[in-house]
Amino acid sequence: MQFPILSVIVFTPMAAAMLILLIKSERKNEIRVTALAAASLALLLSLWVYFSYDKAAAGYQFVEKYNWMPMLGISLHLGVDGMSAPLVLLTGVVMFTGVLISWGLDDRPREFFAFLFILASGVFGVFASLDLFMLFFFY
Questions:
Q1: Which domain holds residue 129?
Q2: How many domains does the chain have?
Q3: Residue 66: beta bridge partners?
Q4: Across 72-84, average pLDDT
Q5: What's the whole-model pTM score?
Q6: Fewest beta carbons less than 10 Å away: which of 42, 45, 54, 65?
């Protein structure tokens, strides 16, 4: 069993958003540092996926499948191919850059970073999803 790297990439921003919402609004530096740490983790993991991707091999790589509603045929099925691996990396770069550019934001940073990470989680999920239902869920 390999490390579930794509699940961690998809759900780290969602967990970070929940964690950020638990921090009081007045503690803006803690919110920013938490956002930067989560964005850095997602960027590092997406870099690892991109550079570990074997371009010579055909098909999906880093495939993970978890049955969610088997009676309906719905599962969390994640994987990347030659098109989605660079898009996962691009999402990690844009998310990290967005956190850095928004560092000086003083007007409700808690809500801003929480929504940014919810959006990033959905975008990661869209690019890594192999199940049509989960694609629409993340979209």
A1: 1-22+32-52+84-139
A2: 1
A3: 76
A4: 90
A5: 0.90
A6: 54
